[in-house]
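Final report, closing paragraph on structural work. Over the funding period we assembled a curated collection of sequence-structure pairs, and we close with a single example.
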Amino acid sequence: MVSIGIQRDKDNQVIGCHMSGHAGYDEHGYDIVCAAVSVLSATAMLGLTKIAKQKGEFSNSEGQCDMVLSGEITRSGQDILNTMLLGLEEISKQYPEFVQIHEI
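Its predicted structure, as stored:
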């Protein structure tokens, strides 16, 4: 299962996202659920760093993805993260036994 933890600040802005695990929907190389989660997270990281110029620590490796924002939280950064979350929530609705989202 992919576990996704969302961290918010006192203003309800997303300031962190921590993903771990593998969906286990299909064998390695054919797992469309893992692929979908990976594409959303990788695209969000690119948007945060290249478009929003959001400062933070971003890492993406096999079975683990972490995004922790720092400095001024940009509006475009929030838009990117909230769009990512919409996609992840839809995947979680369609594949609830493979993707779980929770607030941390």
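Residues 23 and 55 are 29 Å apart (CA to CA). The longest helix spans residues 32-51. We thank the funder for supporting this effort.
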